[in-house]
Amino acid sequence: LSLKFGDIGNLQGLAIRFLLTTNYYQLSVQNWFSLHRLQLLYNHSIQATFNATRIYAPASYSYHCEHVSSLQRYDALLVPSSANDLSKLWEVTFIDFQIQGFNIQEGHFAYAKDCASFFSPAILMGLVMSLILLLVLAYALHMLIHLKSLDRHYECKASPAYFGQIKDNDIGDEKEPLRSGGNESYELRNQQFCKIYI
Predict the structure, then answer these.
(1) In 43-172, where do the E strands start and end?
(2) Domain count across the chain
(3) Residue limits of the V-type proton ATPase subunit S1/VOA1 transmembrane domain (predicted)?
């Protein structure tokens, strides 16, 4: 597949050539196409060649990717074929790249297989955080299940230090007169306090 741009400035006959291959895979029981190599041509000769990696799709589909580039910040799907040629001097980036080499109908792209990975760094980080939260929740449930209820035992004992509130109508029952030396004094008989054991 060749994209010809013609003469641009000092570049005569600028063209970008995509070398596509198709193979049949028994595991998926269908043909798949892959972008094998990308070549930059100008001045009527090949100036740079890049090997393509991970650019493939079923033959009845198209391939789509937000960035297909030779730069590392875009995952470098295009790799210079040799360190000795001029490919390392070029930086190639396609934005909103979509390609289909076979089974094209009515001049439109078929359903696209996207290059987004199922396990991108963001997805992996989300899975790790979910695992941590599940572990914290499991630990909290474990602690709640094994939490012992507090048993309260009440024990009431008599004590001379505690004096309950005495009502006026119960004064006759609660006190007993003591006579000594002409003075009248009283002794409380039903003094009680409660101890709570937890």
Answers:
(1) 45-52, 56-58, 62-69, 78-80, 93-99, 112-114, 153-158
(2) 2
(3) 117-154
